[in-house]
Please model this.
Amino acid sequence: MYADRPNILYMHSHDTGRYVQPYGYAIPTPNIQHLAEQGVLFRKAFCAAPTCSPSRASLLTGQHAHMTGMLGLAHRGFVLNDYSQHLLYRLRAAGYYSTLIGEEHIAKDHRTIGYDQVYPIEGYRAHIAAPIAIDMLSSHTLPQPFFLSLGFFETHREFLRPSSERDAKYSLPPAPLPDTPETRRDIGAFKASAWDLDQGIGSVLDALDANGLSDNTLVICTTDHGIAFPRMKGNLTDHGIGVMLIMRGPGGFTGGKVYDALVSHIDLYPTICDLLEIERPSWLQGTSLLPLIHDEVEELHDAIFAEVTYHAAYEPQRAVRTRRWKYIRRFDHHLGPVLPNCDDSPSKDVLMEYGWKERSRPLEQLYDLIFDPNEAHNVANDLSVAVILEEMRTRLDDWMVRTNDPLLHGPVPAPPGAELNDPEQMSASYPTRFVL
Model:
C-alpha cells in the first residue's frame, strides 16, 4: 500500500524571500517560474520566524518556533526539544525512505536528525547539491516512496559577483533600501546567486521528468525567510517573513493556480498528513492547505504569527499579521538596531555611513498594509487607529498565552554554551563580502 503514496521532494533555499520571477521581481528564475505555472503558488506565504534555524524547525515540526525549542541558530548551540517531532518520523511510519542532501540547519551534526541517508556536503551550493540529487533520482534502486530534503546554500551570503555590468548598473534595490551604486551592485550579486539556485532547481526537476517520477512526486519549493539585506532578514515586517512557496503534484497542486490567502510554513506538515491520509500528531499548530486548493474555503487564517528570539544576538520580538494590519512588539530595551542580526554587506555599509547605529527603534509597531504595504510608516501612536492597536495587542497576547511563549515569564536565557554576539557588536553572524 505504501507504493501508491506520492514521493515528496522538499527543496529549500537560504534567504530568498519572494525575490524570484513568479512573484513579479526582475530576477530571472525561469525554472522556478515554470514550476509555478505547473503547480500552485501562494502569494502570501510566511515563515514562522525570519531567522534560519527557527524557521526550518517550525516548518519541519508544524509548530511555532518557541514551541520547538529552536529559539536561535543550530550552529550557535540551539537544538530542538524533540527531534522525533520532525516530519521524517511521521513519514517513516508511513513507509517513506528519507534522504537529506545539503543542510537543514536544525542540528550541528545532520546525522543526528534521523534521516536514513545523509549527504552533508561541503558548501552545499546548487552546482554540488543538485548533481547528487540527480544521481539519487536516477538510481533504479531508489526506495519508494521517498522523502528527499534538498537544501541549497543559495541565496545566502556570500554572494557571487554580479553576473554582468548590466546587473550592477540597472538593478533596483529592495524597497527598504536607498537606490545607490552600492545597493544596486548588491542586488545584482543577489540576482547571480538566484540564477544559480534556479539552475539547480531546474536540473533536479528535469531529473524527475527523465525518470518518470514527476506525476507521483509532491514538490515543495520554499525558503527559510527574507533576503539578507538590512531591514529584511531577521525582521518581522513582510520583508523578513514573506517567503516563496510553490507546490506541484498529486492532490490538487496543479494548474498554475495562485492563492492570496494567508498561509504559514507550519501549515505544510498537516497538509502532508491529510494528503497521505495519515493521522496528524497532536502537537501540530498549523492548518491543512487542502481545503484551500480544493476551493472549499477562501481563507485558512484570519491571522498569522511570527517571532524572533535569538539570531546572532538576543532580540526578542513577536508579530501578528492579518490581511490588513501588522503589529510588532519588542520585548527588550535595546534602544537602537541590533546590528549583529543584520548580515554585513555593501547595503549595510550604506546605512551605517548615514548613522543607522544611532537610529532609535520603537517597542511597538502598527502598519496599515493597504495604505502602507512597505511597512514604512508606524501608526502605533496614531489615535485614529487606537481601537485597531488594542485589538492587535490582544490577538498577540492571546496567542502568546495559548502557546505558552517563554517571553511571558521574562527574558529568555540561551542554552549553556551558546555562541552569541553582544547587541552592540558590529560583526554579523556570517562573513558577507563579495569581491567586485
Residues 427-436 have pLDDT under 50 and may be disordered. The chain has twelve helices and 15 strands. The first strand starts at residue 7 and ends at 13. The longest helix spans residues 181-210.
